[in-house]
Amino acid sequence: MGNALPTVAIVGRPNVGKSTLFNRLAGKKLALVHDRPGVTRDLKETQGKLGDLRFQLMDTAGLDLDKDDTDHLTTLMREQTLKALLHADLILFVIDARLGLLPLDEHFAKLVRKSGKPTVLIANKCEGRRSNLTATIAEGYQLGFDEPVALSAEHGQGLQYLYEAMASRLPAPSEETEGTTTQPLQLAVIGRPNVGKSTLINQWLQQERVLTSDMPGVTRDAIAIDWNYKDQPIRLIDTAGMRKRPKVQDAVEKLAVSDALRTIDYAQVVILLLDPQDILSKQDATIASTVIDEGRVLIIALNKWDQVQNKSAILDELKYRLEKILPQVKGVPCVAISAQTGQNVTRLLDQSLIAYQTWNRRLTTGRLNQWLQDVTAQHPPPLVGRSRLKFKYITQAKTRPPTFMLFTNKPDDVPDAYTRYLQNNLRADFDLWGVPLRLTYKGGRNPYVKDMPK
C-alpha cells in the first residue's frame, strides 16, 4: 500500500454511505452503491482529491463485527479493514446522522481510537432540514472524537467543512510525487464466476490482497491495485464474475457485471481467464469479442492447468474456437497457468507486457509505403467496376490499437477479402500478432504528398 501520497481510509458500519463518499472523493463512480448493506467486500483503492488536497483513498467493508469469526469471508473482510486502519495516515469514520449512534458504531470507534491515527468523524446523510438531525449529530461526541462533520456524500453538501477538517490533519505529499508522469498499464482480469481471478491477483502480489472463496460471486466491485513489475507500473484490476445475462437477476450482481464490463473500456490489456473444463463458452466468446471490438489487447489464460489430463486436446480445441470466434485477430496469446500453485503466472505477465508493447507500436511512413508497394505488386488490387483499385499512400494514423489509413481512388469499394489480405501481411511483416488492427480508407488528395520522397 506504499504510496507517496498520504493515505485516507473510510471506515464505518454497513450502509452509512462509505462507498458514496468514496465515489465523491474519487470524482467518479468506482465503488458499487446499493441500499442493501454489505455490498462492499474488498478493500478498494484509488487516488482522491478534495479542493487542492490529493491523497490515496481506501474504501473498506462495512462489517458486522458481532458476526461469528468462524465465517471465512467475514474474517477476511475484517482483516482487510484492520489492514486499512494500520496503513492509513487519516481515517474518515462515517456514521448515519438519520439513525443516530448504534452499538456497532461504538464498536468501530474503539478500533479507530486504538489505531491512534488522526480521525475525522463524519455524520453522513445530512441532506434536508429535518429537525432531528442536530440531536443525532450531537450524539457523535460520545465517540470521543472532535466535532462531527455534517455531510451529504450523495448530494455533495458540506464538503467545505470536510476539506477544513482534512486539511488540518492530512500530512503533505512526499517530494517523490512531484514530476511523476509515468502512467501505469491498466491490466484487467475478467471471466466467469469462480475461475480464479482473485487467486491470480493474489499470486502475483504474493499477499491476500483480494478476497477469495470457493463460493462464487465474492468479488463485486472492480478492485484496482497499483503495482510494479519489471519497472513497469501496473494497475491490476480484479472484476466480478460475469454469468450469462438471463441468469443475472440479483440487483447487486447486475451492478457488479455492469462494473466489470465498464472496466474493459478503461483497460489496456485484458486477461480472459478460462476454466479448461468448459473452454471458451458462449459467455467467454462474448466477452472476448467485446474486448476486441473496444480495441483492447486480449490475453487468454487457461487456469487450473495442474488439474488437466488431456492438455494437448484442450489447447487444440481452444485454438480452433479462437479462429472461429475471432478471425479478425490472429495470434491471440494463450497461456496455461495455475493461479493456485503459481505455474506460469510470471510468463502470463511477460506475455501481457509484450502484447502491450505491440499495441503501442508505431511504424514509420517510409517503411509502410515500401511495404505497400511490395504487397500490391505481389497481389494487385482487384478491378472494381471498369477500373482497377489503386492504393496511393499509407500512414499509421494512431496506436492503441495500431490503426492505418490508406489513400485510394475508391475508398468505399475495397473488398473485404483484400482488406484481410492487407491485414494478414501487416501482421506477418511487422510482427503485429495478437492485437486488434484497423484499416481505414480515404479518397481525394493525399495530404501527406509533401512528405513523400521524390
Parts with pLDDT < 50 across at least 5 consecutive residues:
32-41, 176-181, 212-220, 246-253
**Quaternary arrangement of the chains shown?**
single chain
Q: Return Rg in Å.
A: 26 Å
Order of helical and strand elements? EHEEHEHEHEHEHEEHEHEHEHHEEEEHE
Protein architecture, described:
Residues 32-41, 176-181, 212-220 and 246-253 have low confidence and may be disordered. The strands form four sheets. A six-stranded mixed β-sheet has the order 2-3-1-4-5-6, with helices on both faces. Strands 8-9-7-10-11-12 form a six-stranded mixed β-sheet, sandwiched between helices. It has a three-stranded mixed β-sheet with strand order 15-16-17. It is built from twelve helices and 17 strands. The chain is an alpha/beta fold and 454 residues long.
Concise structural overview:
The chain has 454 residues and is of the alpha/beta class. The chain contains twelve helices and 17 strands.
List the defining traits of the structure above.
454 residues, alpha/beta, six-stranded mixed beta sheet, elongated
Write the layout of secondary structure elements.
Layout: E1 7-11, H1 18-26, E2 44-50, E3 53-59, H2 72-87, E4 90-96, H3 103-115, E5 119-124, H4 133-138, E6 149-150, H5 159-167, E7 185-190, H6 197-205, E8 223-229, E9 232-238, H7 251-266, E10 269-274, H8 282-293, E11 297-302, H9 311-325, E12 334-336, H10 345-359, H11 365-378, E13 383-384, E14 387-388, E15 391-398, E16 403-408, H12 416-430, E17 438-442
Parallel strand pairs: 1-3, 1-4, 4-5, 5-6, 7-9, 7-10, 10-11, 11-12, 16-17
Antiparallel strand pairs: 2-3, 8-9, 13-14, 15-16
